Amino acid sequence: MNRTVCLRTMVLAAALAAGCGYGYGYPASPSLMEPGGAGGREDLGLTPTGVDELWVVARDDTAPPPEGPAETEESPAMRAVDGDREIPLPLKHTDVRVRIAAYVASVEVEQQYHNPYDEKIEVVYVLPLPQDAAVSDFLMKIGDRTIRGVIREREEAERIYEEARSMGFVASLLTEERPNIFTQRVANIEPGRDIDVQLTYYNALPYRDGAYVFSFPTVVGPRFNPPGTTDGVGAVARGEQGLSGQDTEIQYLAPDERTVADISFDIELDAGVSIEGLDSPTHAIDVQDVSASRKHITLAAGETVPDRDFVLHYEVAGEAVKSSFLLHRDERGGFFTAVLVPPDDLARVERAPVEHVFVLDCSGSMDGEPLELAKAAVRRVLRRLEPRDTFQIIRFSENASGLGPRPVRASTDNIEDGLDYLDDLEGEGGTMMIEGIKAALDFPHEEGHVRIVSFLTDGYIGNEAEILAAIKERLGNTRIFSFGVGSSPNTYLLDNMAKIGQGAVAYVNGGDLEADQEAVDAFFERISHPALSDIEIDWGGMSVDEVYPTRIPDLWIGRPVVITGRIDGAVVPQVTVHARVGGEPVSFDLATGAGEQDAQRPAIAQIWARMKIAELAERSLWATDMDELVDRIRGVALDYGLLSKFTAFVAVDSSRVTEGEHGTTVVQPVPVPDGVRYDTTVMDPALVGGPVHE
Which of 507, 562, 506, 552 has the alpha carbon at shortest distance from 532? Predict the structure, then answer.
């Protein structure tokens, strides 16, 4: 009797002794299509031609159980090469291909693996993706064969992968550890063989200070995990697997080590209207002008080391991007994505007095350039405060302390004291952000002032859920702005801090001093002017439900928000946004593009599903009905073919059994993020609670 591997809606079996298999054709995930277009997978150059099925096999009940984890001891061929310290590792290259239409990005990420060793291997690679990425397609390429993976409940996908690995079949698995951290596993790569793994995701791009922003993280930054935790993200030196004691672990190359692994970007940008400006604050780029509204962007020579986030800004025609509305309709119904932009004239409204609390991360990972960037940002804001404002500076690492017990008046003397306090701050110790949260949110609020707490940090912690829950519990009337510092900040944490705190987020990467200063000045201008608050939308009789986020956040000048939802029935020509500023009501209309109500933009449905999952996941931080929320997240992910914490992609090729009795597991190490010190990042073998501290 054969025990079959069950794939949710069907059972597929093959006689292992006969060496045969049965394939399941999994439908291709559609790509983003331009307004009015009629594309499909061909839009991204991926036609169904030549794409094989997922192969699933059965296992005999009398066969021995699957092997445990593959051996991790390094063979002589896996050790560092003497001399230039080049480390032979499986990941050769990452190719990122991007299509941007208006403000929606469709991204293909292809990881090219090669086995440089003299025995069979399994590769484990912890990689970052944008925290709002809707991962909806997964391919494995072996020679001229392409196998499409399927989305399944995570435990089921992991079981299929382990059985396939133990039986000697090539298999790959993609799981989510955090919304912005994923693990890629590829089993049974034979010596000298190449295997490519490709994933596709969609996301809506944010609009910040006059430009849309496309961002792609290239390396996972180190995380500090409070003592006693095991569900965090560990940081260890290459070859020190398991030292951190965390469920997810990143290995870092030493400063004198390198690999041949590099990264490339190929970006096709079609803004739909004339592009007025385009730049990257993080990398040198080559730009080909296709037309006034279309550009082709690649990395310049020498910019291929994956040690910092890639960021691209593009400005479109007009003084400011107006609110926009995109539609999609299929057999599941109608979907929309809208960008809400506050009117420019709010900038002329006199601001209220501000109670500004600066919270600086002074942990070991911030030592050096990141901390200096944070201190410079605070200095620029302090010098622009008015006497009617108040301020406080709080630093945290292992504990928290501040300039005083509560905010002080922004007098000349007090500001000088604050500048002196900043000068003395140094980076050392772990990142106990919870102490900074308590210190910033627990003291009494001063009446008559808009209370703003600005967190300046790289966000390198592993207990994001605890931090976000603590903010939710203590928030009150405070507005939280998160200021990401460094080359590879934890955008998932920083974006969600601002989201929960009804504020906004900004990033300073250190790549361009002038650009960083402009970002700081723009940040101050933003918080100096009133937000649109108490936002409601009059849908004009249109049947709309499941709108996310469920509570529309405040809008700040230069910081619109994206909302998405479902539409049942006809689309009205416009909807009206009602809000308040300074206690006074304001309204503006938003055109819906009703003439395109049957438009085919499949990415819009995927983005809606991802935002619904994110909303449910945020609710789980403080909800008591966890089982119900998990079931709902899992259900949405399966229905829309999306990766989530409770679903995974798996692909198996059972056309042949690879040679060799077992495979050695090779964990792909990565460079330490640019500007971050190696000695304050990796675990010291003598410690068990976090990165090395000075």
Answer: 552
Helix (H, G, I), strand (E, B) or coil at 630: helix
> Could you tell me if 558 and 422 lie in one domain?
no
Average pLDDT of the residues in 651-665: 88
For 441, the 3-state DSSP assignment is helix
Q: Per the structure block, which two tokens stand in for 645?
A: 């914490």
Q: CA of 238: how far to CAs of 205, 663, 680, in Å?
A: 35, 19, 15
Q: Are 339 and 422 part of one and the same domain?
A: no
> Is residue 51 included in any domain, yes or no?
no
- Domain-located, residue 374: yes
pLDDT for 239: 85
Question: Which single residue is written with the structure tokens 């296992």?
Answer: 59
Q: What band does 675 get if pLDDT is binned at 50, 70 and 90? A: confident
pLDDT of 37 higher than 80: no
498 and 549 share one domain: no
Backbone angles phi, psi at 33, to 5 degrees: -120, 145
Tokens matching residue 687: 């410690």
Write the pLDDT tens digit of every residue in 215-273: 999 998 887 777 777 888 888 888 888 888 888 888 888 888 888 889 999 999 999 88
Residues 367 and 464 both lie in one domain: yes
Distance CA 404, CA 437 (A): 16
Number of domains in the chain: 2
Structure-derived torsion over alpha carbons of residues 549, 552, 555, 559, reported in degrees to the nearest 10:
10
State the Cα–Cα distance between residues 342 and 321, nearest whole angstrom. Answer: 10
Confidence band for 323, pLDDT divided at 50, 70 and 90: confident
Domain match, 423 and 399 both? yes
Residue 596: inside a domain: yes
The pLDDT of residue 561: 82
Provide the CATH number for the domain around residue 477.
3.40.50.410
Report H helices in 64-186.
154-166
Average pLDDT, the chain: 81
Q: Report the sign of the C-alpha dihedral through residues 683, 685, 689, 693, in that order.
A: negative
Q: DSSP 3-state helix, strand, coil percentages of the chain (rounded to 5)? A: 20, 35, 45
| pTM (2 d.p.) | 0.78
Q: Decide the pairing of beta strands 324-330 and 233-237.
A: unpaired
Whether 212 has a pLDDT exceeding 50, the answer reads: yes
Q: What is the largest CA-CA distance in the chain?
A: 85
Q: Are 511 and 369 within one domain? A: yes
Shared domain for 583 and 617, answered yes or no, is yes
Range of the domain at 522: 351-528
- Whether the pLDDT of residue 612 is over 70: the answer is yes
With vertex at residue 329, the alpha carbon angle to CA 560 and CA 135, rounded to the nearest 5 degrees, is 65
**What radius of gyration do the chain's Cα atoms show?**
26
CB within 8 Å of 318: residues ≥ 6 apart:
273
Q: Do residues 556 and 481 touch, judged by C-beta distance below 8 A?
A: no
End-to-end C-alpha distance for the chain, whole angstroms: 61
Where among 482, 503, 528 does a domain terminate? Answer: 528
Reported confidence tier of residue 344, pLDDT bands at 50, 70, 90: low
Q: Within a 10 A sphere around the Cβ of 173, how many other Cβ atoms?
A: 26
Distance CA 314, CA 323 (A): 17
CA angle 683, 684, 690 (to 5 degrees): 45
Q: Are 338 and 324 in contact (CB under 8 A)?
A: yes
